[in-house]
Amino acid sequence: RVTKPTAPPLSAAPVVRGPRPRAAAIAPPPTTVPAMPVERTPQRNGDLPVLGDNEELRLSEPRTKLFTGQDLQGEGVLHLTTRRVVWLNAQNPAASYAMDYPFVTLHAVSRDKNAWPDPCLYCQLKAEETNEAGEEEDEPNVPELRFVPAEASHLQQIFSVFSEMSAMNPDPCDEQVESSDDEGEEEERAFPGSAPVGAGLWTVDPNDAAMEDADEDDEQQAEGDITMETDEK
Predict the structure, then answer these.
(1) Distances (CA, A) of 138 to 85, 103, 127, 132
(2) Which of 13, 117, 146, 218 qualifies as a cystine partner to 67, CB 3.0-4.6 A?
């Protein structure tokens, strides 16, 4: 009898036991800094902005240069609507900007050539309170804008319309507005009617010499006062 050689049994691969591989750690999403509420390249129809619902155009000033800090962005048309400040670049339509009024914390007419060579509407914007790492900054950088119209004589009208529209769009996060409204309600409840004459009030003799001297001092002081047209929130 012929016997066939048998193959040696296959040995199983050695099992190496050890610590299980750990799953790859999932990195947390990066902390993002809230973007400033400035709209880049707002919708436009030629030199006019596309208005939203219940939005009206109140003033348009052509040939107005825009400076962000010290950098010239170009020349374009400044539009003040009932909701936004819109600047449309005439040379580069993609480099246009729009912002809501509550984002502008201060606006003023600047005519001091030591501060800026040309008369302009100076604006301070709401500063970011966090840096790129999401940490709060003690002294945040305050963005600055300057609108320089070709006709400097139009600055007063631009300032007046800007102030009116800004008052129509208060900052919803402004605690001073809410506190002033609450104080007004408290005063109305505490003093529902007018007090009778002489009840707890100081009355002055019309011939009081002290009042005459005070009036003269006020007149002399008023002659030397210098006012600056500003509007701050």
Answers:
(1) 29, 20, 11, 14
(2) 146
* Residues 228, 107: Cα–Cα separation, whole Å: 11
CA distance 60 to 87: 9
Query: What is the Cα–Cα distance from 209 to 152, expressed in whole angstroms?
Result: 47
The closest alpha carbon to 119, from 156, 89, 74, 90, belongs to 156
| C-alpha dist (Å) from residue 101 to 62, 81, 127, 222 | 20, 10, 14, 33
Residue 66 clears pLDDT 60, i.e. is over it: yes
In this prediction, residue 142 has a pLDDT band, given cuts at 50, 70 and 90, of confident
User: Is the pTM here over 0.70, yes or no?
Assistant: no
Residue 50: both structure tokens together: 């596309």
State both tokens at 29.
């999403």
Q: How far is CA 103 from CA 41, 60, 144, 164, in A?
A: 17, 20, 12, 15
